[in-house]
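Hi V.,

Quick status before I head out on leave. The structure for the redesign project is tokenized and pasted below; the design run finished overnight.
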């Protein structure tokens, strides 16, 4: 397994060096929208502390990520009038991981609507802004 690369895309987003559609943050976690959503409202929850994935994350940071993941999932049900939530989390290339800063995917689902394939469709800035606003409003109302 490789180490943690301080210049991975999500580390740059955390440092404000790359833009992101931010939804939420607290002292240990940060939430933003996936730019290639598999369904509208697809969000990513990450720890602020460096961690490559599930295999090296500190247990306290993992617990914080999971607590935020539950908040985001509950808010996404309301914000996107979802019928369900798919949670995904990939580790190492063989496990499907592409970006090497731990992240959990929360994807709102509708009955009978399949997920888009991963990383195939880049959402418009206009839609990402609208979806981030909806999810943020639902989180603030919780
Ligand atoms: P994974 O490592 O979980 O397989 O996939 C990484 C995820 O990050 C993909 O869903 C991809 O669409 C998303 N992603 C890749 N680059 C960026 C980026 O620059 N900004 C955002 N917001 N998401 C990204």
């Amino acid at each position: 397994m490789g180490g943690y690369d301080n210049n991975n895309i999500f580390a740059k987003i955390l440092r404000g060096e790359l833009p992101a559609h931010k939804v939420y943050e607290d002292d240990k976690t940060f939430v933003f929208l996936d730019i290639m959503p598999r369904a509208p409202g697809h969000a990513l929850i990450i720890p602020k502390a460096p961690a490559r994935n599930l295999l090296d994350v500190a247990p306290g940071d993992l617990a914080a990520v999971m607590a935020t993941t539950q908040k985001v999932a509950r808010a996404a049900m309301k914000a996107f009038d979802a019928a369900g939530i798919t949670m995904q989390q990939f580790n190492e290339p063989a496990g499907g991981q592409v970006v090497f800063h731990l992240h959990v995917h929360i994807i709102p689902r509708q009955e009978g609507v399949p997920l888009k394939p991963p990383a195939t469709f880049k959402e418009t800035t206009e839609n990402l802004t609208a979806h981030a606003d909806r999810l943020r409003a639902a989180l603030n109302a919780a």
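Above is the designed sequence. The chain has one domain: 9-141.

G. will cover questions while I'm gone.

Best,
W.
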